[in-house]
Amino acid sequence: MPSPRPRTRIQARNSEAILDAALEVFSQYGFRGATLDQIAEVAGLSKPNLLYYFPSKEAIHIALLSGLMDTWLAPLRALHHDGEPVEEILDYMRRKLEMSRLYPRESRLFANEILQGAPRILDQIEGDLKALVDDKAALITTWIAEGRLAPVDPRHLLFSIWATTQHYADFDIQVHRVLGVEGDAPYAEATRFLTQMYRATLTPQPR
Amino acid sequence: MPSPRPRTRIQARNSEAILDAALEVFSQYGFRGATLDQIAEVAGLSKPNLLYYFPSKEAIHIALLSGLMDTWLAPLRALHHDGEPVEEILDYMRRKLEMSRLYPRESRLFANEILQGAPRILDQIEGDLKALVDDKAALITTWIAEGRLAPVDPRHLLFSIWATTQHYADFDIQVHRVLGVEGDAPYAEATRFLTQMYRATLTPQPR
DNA sequence: GTCTATATTAAGATAGAC
DNA sequence: GTCTATCTTAATATAGAC
Predict the structure, then answer these.
(1) Which residue in B156, B178, B194 is closest to A130 by CB distance?
(2) A2 CA to chain B: closest CA distance, Å?
């Protein structure tokens, strides 16, 4: 679902600016905590002009969320059966971590939505997301049965990958303050640590 | 820091009810997204009566947060040097997971505060939390040097424990919908999975 | 397409009766 | 201590000029 009427160049540019500003504000304060004044300020437009492009505050929020789930699931969709299982899952984890690094605002928007009870994406969670998880859990179960992966609970494995990777976007500020650093340094360290952890967890033990 | 003037029984009971209702609402919608009307509704009191017990919306929020950090750090403080290292850390992880199960609202309040840039607890993050993490990271480093723990990055290990355990409170609704279950069942499964994962990660490999 | 001005509702907070 | 009524500000949204 694209943003409304992006026909002329100026319309496309302003729609973009509004969605970008809205992502900034919604991802930090949630739907109800965000205000159109803030979004207009960040977008560099007047508040009525915002509502010329989108019919309401909720319409802006929905426009942001509608594309989000697909983007968020893409790394998991790319988990294929043709590679070496441990490395396949490690690649998935690293793709997810890279998403946190490149799109922290999208991660926080998603986190805010879930924290508030997922009122606008519950259907997708019970539909697309659950179906995809069921599918990939079956693949992981197959790998385990073949002895190519240590016997782990596939769904909780996926939860742990989501949790550990999204943590670096959602709890960004805590990570930086506790480490006493700025910038992307934590991501390099996290890649090493998480690779080590999941390799140890997933590598089958011949005994 | 206790809630204000809990002298008589009725005052104590109402203060309790307000804080409990506020926890419910703030943890779901964040500070700005929550309204006094909602809190009053949940508490079963009138809005002016709320403001008889607390001087402002912010005062209620601060009362909730002020005790939260200590509660949240208690499990980590209890990580001692006298046990067997792998089991000590597993115990810590399980204490943290149990906190998520028993106090999901507190976990979400904390998550909301961090997502919004931690405006009211940044000092404690850079102070108490960082100091505690530095202290326990040193302990973990010692264990590693003694060969009693696999060589892992101690701070990212702690981040991963926070992320994986808090996930079951903060993303509660997603976990339940994806698994297609209700109640505490996910916690039992998570305990098994996370115990397995951290044991594999932390057990030193003699080679 | 964009703005100023404004209508309308909701939210935080207070006054004052009981 | 608790309520109704109300003040004030802020927020969503619209009207209408340019």
Answers:
(1) B178
(2) 26
* C-alpha to C-alpha distance for A193 and A51, rounded to whole angstroms: 46
**A1, A57, A168, B1 from B70: Cα distances, Å:** 45, 38, 23, 11
Looking at beta carbons, which pairs linking B58-65 to residues 24 or more positions away fall under 8 Å?
B58/B31, B59/B4, B60/B18, B60/B19, B60/B22, B60/B26, B61/B22, B61/B26, B61/B31, B61/B120, B62/B120, B63/B1, B63/B3, B63/B4, B63/B19, B64/B19, B64/B22, B64/B23, B64/B26, B64/B109, B65/B109, B65/B113, B65/B120, B65/B121
Taken in order B65, B115, A22, A130, the sign of the CA dihedral is negative
Q: Architecture of A1-55 per CATH?
A: Orthogonal Bundle (1.10)
Q: How far lies A204's CA from each of A150, A200, B56, in Å?
A: 4, 9, 57
The residue extents of the domains of chain B are: 1-55, 62-202
Residue of A31, A126, A201 lying closest to B197 (CB–CB): A201
**Domain covering B62-202 in this structure, CATH number:** 1.10.357.10
Give the integer Cα–Cα distance in Å for A89 and B200: 16
Task: Quote the pTM value.
Answer: 0.97
Chain A contact for B48 (CB, 8 A cutoff): no
Q: Residue B48: pLDDT band by 50, 70, 90 thresholds? A: very high
Which amino acid appears at position A57 of this protein? Answer: K
Query: Mean pLDDT over all residues of chain A?
Result: 95
Counting Cβ atoms within 10 Å, is residue A180 exposed (0-12), middle (13-18) or buried (19+)?
Answer: exposed
Which residue on chain B is closest to A191 by alpha carbon?
Answer: B156
How confident is the model over B58-102, as pLDDT tens digits? 999 999 999 899 999 999 999 999 999 999 999 999 999 999 999
B116 DSSP 8-state letter: T
Does this chain's domain B1-55 share its CATH topology with B62-202?
A: no
